[in-house]
Structures are given as structure tokens and as C-alpha cells.
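Anyone up for a design puzzle?
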């Protein structure tokens, strides 16, 4: 089963950790105020979802967009961590299986465990992007 991969500069995320990216982009606004959610949608979610659907095997998140993504992503990651009971990120996808989710749907964004796995690596990529000024690259196979 294929999936999504996150990288930035020398950082390479774990196996298929980018697969749940769409679910993450749809989940973040649920924690934001109406005004913040609208801004996030306009500046980040809508353009990235479009890139995800049109990008084929690869697309990039510019360092400028990373600056708009970082704080909401940090909040969402903390929410997922608390909600899931502070699992190790690499063990979190298994929580979706235990909850009885279809694992393909969970992997591509429906599962909070897969989303937590994604946000963990995406935050690390954001930190590298902010330090080095490089884009985050999502690749799919």
C-alpha cells in the first residue's frame, strides 16, 4: 500500500507519515476561532488541498506558507496527543485499528492516530524549513 512522504532539506519523515495530510488540513480548523479558521482556510488549507489533489506524485509547501501553518499545526498536534493519550507517534496508527477504523481510510486522513503520526513529522519538517528557509516536499507513491 503506497502513501505520502514528508521531507525538508536533510530531514526525511518516517514511512508514509505524510499520508494523512488531508485529514490534518481538515482537522486544524476545528480548533480555531471562526476568524482564524477562515484565515487558515484561505492562506493554507485551500491552496494546499488544491496542490495535493493536482500535484500528482509531489508538491511543495513554501517557507512562507510554513510560517502560516506552523502555529495551527502545533495546536492540532497537542490536541491529538492529548486526545489519544500521549502515544508514541510511531504507535499511533495502530490506535485507529483498535478503534475499528478501515485502515486505508484511517491512513488517508480519517484516523486520528494516522493524523498524529503525520503531525509529528510535519512539525519536524516545519522546524527545518524555518531554520533553513527550504520548502517542505510531499511525495506520494
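Challenge accepted. My sequence:
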Amino acid at each position: 500500500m503506497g502513501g505520502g512522504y514528508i521531507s525538508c532539506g536533510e530531514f526525511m519523515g518516517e514511512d508514509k507519515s505524510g499520508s494523512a495530510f488531508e485529514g490534518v488540513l481538515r482537522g486544524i480548523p476545528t480548533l480555531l476561532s471562526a476568524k482564524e479558521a477562515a484565515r487558515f482556510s484561505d492562506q493554507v488549507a485551500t491552496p494546499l488541498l488544491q496542490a495535493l489533489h493536482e500535484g500528482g506524485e509531489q508538491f511543495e509547501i513554501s517557507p512562507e506558507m510554513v510560517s502560516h501553518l506552523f502555529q495551527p499545526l502545533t495546536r492540532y498536534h497537542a490536541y491529538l496527543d492529548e486526545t489519544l493519550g500521549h502515544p508514541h507517534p510511531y504507535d499511533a496508527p495502530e490506535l485507529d485499528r483498535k478503534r475499528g477504523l478501515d485502515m486505508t481510510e484511517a491512513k488517508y486522513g480519517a484516523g486520528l492516530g494516522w493524523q498524529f503520526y503525520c503531525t509529528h513529522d510535519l512539525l519536524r519538517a516545519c522546524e527545518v524549513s524555518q531554520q533553513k528557509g527550504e520548502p517542505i516536499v510531499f511525495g506520494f507513491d
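A detail worth pointing out: Strands lie at 4-8, 11-12, 58-61, 136-140.
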